[in-house]
Amino acid sequence: MDCGLLPVTRRAFFAAGGLSVAAAVAIASDSAVDSIDLPRAALLADGRAKTYLLVFHTGQKVMTGLAAFAKSHKLVAGDFTGIGAVSDAMIGYFDPQSKSYLRNYEKGQAEVLSLTGNLALNDNEPFFHVHAALGRRDGSARGGHLFEMTARPTVELVLNTYPEAVRRKIDPQSGLPLLDP
Q1: How far apart are CA 157 and CA 140, in angstroms?
Q2: How far from 144 is each of 36, 57, 139, CA to CA, in Å?
Q3: Which of 1, 87, 150, 164 is deepest in the core (most CB within 10 A)?
Q4: What DSSP string describes 83-95?
Q5: Residue 159 in domain
Q6: 70 vs 34, 66, 88, 99, CA distance in Å?
Q7: In Å, how far are 1, 13, 54, 142 from 20, measured between CA atoms?
Q8: 68 Cβ contact partners less than 8 Å away, ≥ 6 residues apart
Q9: Inside any domain, residue 122
Q10: Is residue 10 a contact partner of residue 17, using CB atoms and an 8 Å limit?
Q11: What is the mean pLDDT of residues 28-43?
């Protein structure tokens, strides 16, 4: 039912900053970061820490677009939350015995119930560690570590970035690149 109200998350994003969405942020033309998966973006807060609203549209790959956005803006640390809907996703579960991810392909439409993650440098490159909870048509949910998802019709997220680099270091026990504060 449409009551003519914006979802709480959008209202909160704009009201908290007292902002209306500004013009889209210009994307660098560096061929290393050119990508059809780059989201539309608006800068919501501009200080030492910056906040961006990122919007992915049908067919765009979210993880690919996040990586391209981080690289084009030379981002070194951050966190984000998001919601939306996707047509396909690859999620995983880390198996400590095999020290590897078991990958599960989620084919078909799903609601993004929760999308959360952080950004740090891994080998001096931006690296997103992301988890997702996906709602299925029957009301059940699947979730785990996100490898990739394709927006349909949209994935909307708020990315908070920070000027001080956060780095990852390989953990000898798990073999994973873990945060190294």
Answers
A1: 23
A2: 26, 22, 17
A3: 150
A4: EEEEEEEEEEEEE
A5: no
A6: 12, 6, 23, 28
A7: 25, 9, 14, 34
A8: 33, 34, 35, 37, 38
A9: yes
A10: no
A11: 70
Q: E strands, 28-124, where?
A: 40-46, 50-57, 78-95, 100-122
Take residue 62 and report the two structure tokens written for it.
Answer: 């979210």
Do 70 and 54 touch, CB atoms closer than 8 A?
no
- The count of other CB atoms within 10 Å of the CB of residue 124 is 9
Average pLDDT over residues 108-125: 98
Q: Say what the pTM is.
A: 0.77
Residue with tokens 């084009």: 72
Q: Are 148 and 64 in contact (CB under 8 A)?
A: yes
What are the Cα distances from residue 126, in Å, to 77, 87, 88, 109, 119? 8, 26, 24, 29, 7
Structural domain for 112, as ranges: 8-26+36-152
* Across 9-18, 64-73, 99-108, 159-168, least confident range: 9-18
Q: Are 15 and 45 in contact (CB under 8 A)?
A: no
d(CA 109, CA 32): 31
- For residue 46, name the pLDDT band (cuts at 50, 70, 90): confident
| CA 100 to chain CA centroid, nearest Å | 22
Question: Which CATH number fits the domain that encloses residue 85?
Answer: 3.30.1330.80
Is residue 173 a part of any domain in this protein? no
